[in-house]
Amino acid sequence: xxxxxxxxxxxxxxxxxxxxxxxxxxxxxxxxxxxxxxxxxxxxxxxxxxxxxxxxxxxxxxxxxxxxxxxxxxxxxxxxxxxxxxxxxxxxxxxxxxxxxxxxxxxxxxxxxxxxxxxxxxxxxxxxxxxxxxxxxxxxxxxxxxxxxxxxxxxxxxxxxxxxxxxxxxxxxxxxxxxxxxxxxxxxxxxxxxxxxxxxxxxxxxxxxxxxxxxxxxxxxxxxxxxxxxxxxxxxxxxxxxxxxxxxxxxxxxxxxxxxxxxxxxxxxxxxxxxxxxxxxxxxxxxxx
Length: 289
Known about the structure:
By secondary structure, the chain is α/β, with parallel strands linked by helices. It has two domains: about 5-170, Peptidoglycan recognition protein-like (Lysozyme-like), CATH 3.40.80; about 175-260. The protein contains six helices and five strands; from the N terminus they run αβαβββαβααα. Helix 3 crosses helix 4 and helix 5 crosses helix 6.
């Protein structure tokens, strides 16, 4: 599976799904040069609602503004991520948004300094992970030349969180109950859990599935380890009892040995007494005669 395929799996709505008249474009870069994530916000209101129609009208209005007012060749942003976590494709990712950011995928969060929802954050994280594994390559508009307030205070907090989590191993990032994770649901929907999957899996989904399998394995090992520990403790307790019993047996053996010695002494005295009685009887018999 190509890197482009990996990205397409993360996109919920493709450009031609809502921008029906969009024409083919000339590409200005290859997919493999992309190793930066750059985040923007609108600086104005987002869509009126999270319905498909309102999202569509809102993006097309931004496209018209960029093309007619800014005189750009297309909408600036490659990716739009809405508050419900839905990812929409904008500019073709093989066309750079701007000449001096030719290595970046540009991501747009609707609204003016919008509060980032958890669903939105997870989608941002998936795109950021696709683009790079280097926290320094994750930024917003304010953190490059020609900086502006974009993407707002909330957007910058989102960047900080993305950078922190890119520094962590995957097993520390995901929620404990992975069955509720969006990528796990995707894996179930596509048949990857049952083994009947017909579609390729993104690295994000594979990471979730593998992490859950890893955690289940660790849990099983811990359960077995707990049983082994308990059994070892039981064995140790039994060994202690056996040692105590062996010591008691040794003490009893000593006592029996001592009793045997005393019995032997008594037997010797009894034999002597019997012999003395015989001598006395013989003397008495002679005296009587």
